[in-house]
Specification:
The structure is a single chain. By secondary structure, the protein is α/β, with parallel strands linked by helices. The chain has two domains: 217 residues, Acetylglutamate kinase-like (Carbamate kinase, 3-Layer(aba) Sandwich), CATH 3.40.1160.10; 140 residues, VC0802-like (2-Layer Sandwich), CATH 3.30.2130.10. Helix content is 38%, strand content 22%. An eight-stranded mixed sheet has the order 3-4-2-1-7-9-10-8, sandwiched between helices. It has a six-stranded antiparallel sheet with strand order 12-13-11-14-16-15. The chain is globular and about 75 Å long. It starts with a strand and ends with a helix. The chain binds aspartic acid and magnesium ion.
């Protein structure tokens, strides 16, 4: 059994949906996880935001626009009148459902119900396409097995039990289609695995079923050694370890959702990144094995804020950092990077939702300085502590760029730096020149 997840662009229009069929139509049993058609989840978020803002007319308008787009998809996707008719009925019922929320007071629960429509639509449309072509396939509702617990973590026991039970209902199907992203929460309500969460769905399913491989299909050939949006001549990295992939995914490489590495790593299931536009290409293979190389890749993560806390009370004191960390914990704000001196500590975060509250509480421990619009540059390579000689190339590459923080020694696989976002593109290009050419 393998898992094949196709992202939003891979199901982004009727032609792309049809192009998936030769990739999945063979004798091997597989679960096909689909995202919403590209742009849909963003539009649904906009509709929900308008409803929160009490702009129900604008929300209705947006809903109508999106619905019109889907009716066009149906016209192009199916070749028989019978399936077109069912397709239009399907679209009407989903958008009728969304429209029903424009009449009532709007809550988080309803927002999540709206966000779920994208994946429900893409999977139903695709399943109907296979039916029209007489290709046998099952449709497995994610809401019947995918669940998160009260901490928002996948409820592995529940998922495995229910997924296996559901699968027993379609023993003869080699192709089993299911929704990425959507799930139920501990209260049984419709919820989701956060933006980009379909990769996570694929990995959770792969782990629950002990799959032979988890494939994540997108529109590039795998992890690149630098950000192809800003740097020319980037190359595909053919092999990565789970740890290296997790660092790259977390620090900005958009191709893989960072949470999706964990379930695969726990069950030691290989993850392969593939390109639907170039299916022959081997892509990137992620396994437990790490083949160290001086430098493998560079990634950048924007939207970082740095907080510098300075306090003489830190000098030779113990327990100071605990007090600092507790403040972040109380505000459910994860810390990305941290550096300390004897009297000060610098901490970066990427979620600034509670930044004012955090600053207020930190100010009771010392003086606090905030700097925003920062980026973390993560360099993945051989940073084992017994090694010598890796730093000069990095610092030479960046010698005209102010380095705000440096984190080294936390992991044998990576070194991270903090810079102003305005210097990011320059930094990525310089690193590319010095490390990879
Ligand atoms: N459709 C969801 C999103 O756009 C989930 C995903 O595509 O992974 O975030
Ligand atoms: Mg994605």
């Amino acid at each position: 059994m393998k898992i094949m997840k196709f992202g939003g662009t891979s199901v982004g229009n009727p032609a792309r949906m049809r192009a998936l069929i030769p990739l999945i139509n063979d004798d091997e049993k597989k679960i096909v996880v689909l995202s919403a058609m590209s742009g849909t989840t963003n539009s649904l978020v906009e509709i929900a935001d308008l409803l929160y803002a009490d702009k129900s007319n604008e929300a209705s308008l947006k809903n109508d626009q999106l619905m019109a787009k889907y009716h066009k998809v149906v016209d192009e996707l199916y070749s028989t009148e019978k399936f077109r008719k069912s397709g239009h009925e399907l679209i009407d019922s989903h958008f009728e459902y969304i429209r029903s929320f424009t009449l009532k007071a709007f809550t988080r629960l309803q927002e999540k119900a709206i966000l779920a429509q994208g994946e429900l639509l893409s999977t139903s449309l695709f399943h109907m396409l296979l039916q029209e072509m007489n290709i046998r396939a099952g449709l497995l509702p994610a809401l019947s097995y995918m669940r998160i617990d009260k901490d928002g973590e996948p409820d592995s026991y529940y998922i495995e039990e229910n997924l296996k039970r559901e699968l027993r209902k379609c023993p003869k199907d080699n192709i089993i289609i299911t929704q990425g992203f959507i799930c139920r929460n501990a209260q049984g309500e419709t919820d989701n695995l956060k933006r980009g969460g379909s990769d996570f769905t694929a990995s959770i399913i792969g782990a629950a079923l002990n799959a032979s491989e988890i494939q994540i299909w997108t529109d590039i050939n795998g992890f690149h050694n630098n950000d192809p949006r800003f740097v020319e001549n980037t190359k595909v990295i053919r092999e990565l370890s789970f740890d290296e992939a997790a660092e790259l995914a977390y620090f900005g490489a958009k191709i893989l959702h960072p949470s999706s590495v964990n379930p695969a790593r726990e069950k030691n299931i290989p993850v392969r990144l593939k390109n639907t536009m170039d299916p022959e290409d081997a892509g990137t293979l992620i396994t437990a094995e790490c083949k160290f190389e001086d430098y493998k890749a560079v990634a950048a993560k924007d939207g970082i804020s740095v907080l510098r806390i300075h306090s003489d009370r830190m000098l030779m004191a113990y327990g100071f950092l605990r007090k600092v960390f507790e403040i972040f914990e109380a505000h459910k704000t994860p810390i990305d990077m941290i550096t300390t001196s004897e009297v000060s500590v610098s901490i970066t975060i990427d979620n600034s939702q509670f930044i004012n509250e955090i600053i207020k509480e930190l100010s009771e421990l010392g003086t606090v300085e905030l700097e925003q619009n920062q980026s973390i540059i993560c360099i993945v390579g051989d940073f084992r502590t017994e090694r010598t000689g890796s730093a000069p190339e990095i610092f030479e590459a960046l010698n005209t760029i102010p380095l705000k923080m440096i984190s080294y020694g936390g992991s044998p696989y990576s070194l991270s730096l903090l810079i102003d976002t305005s210097n990011k593109i320059d930094a990525l290009r310089q690193l590319s020149k010095h490390l990879f050419s």
